[in-house]
ORF_3; hypothetical orfA (Pseudomonas aeruginosa), 97 residues
Amino acid sequence: MLLGVFMLLRRLAIAGFFFLLALIVIVFVLENLDSSHVTFLGRQSPEFPLVLLLLSSFVMGGLLVLLMSLPGYMRTRSMLSGLRTEVAKLRTSPLDH
């Protein structure tokens, strides 16, 4: 019974967090509707809404972080697989005295 209440409260907290996050994003979008352009290496982009430029920067940064963490993640998964295999072998091997 107590676990069910805890799970319900947890789901409500998660839903509240995402609702608050959506509200913040909506306010952010409404506050940044002005158009702007980006200059990089002497080249100028066409004008886009500022919110589009900022959100695309956040998304590209997040994707870059995921891409950079991928080798470590793959290495960890490989090590974990090897350790699980070793544990399985040790569980089935007889003990030597």
Observations:
- The chain has one domain: 2-92.
- The chain has two helices and four strands.
- Residues 2-92 form one domain.
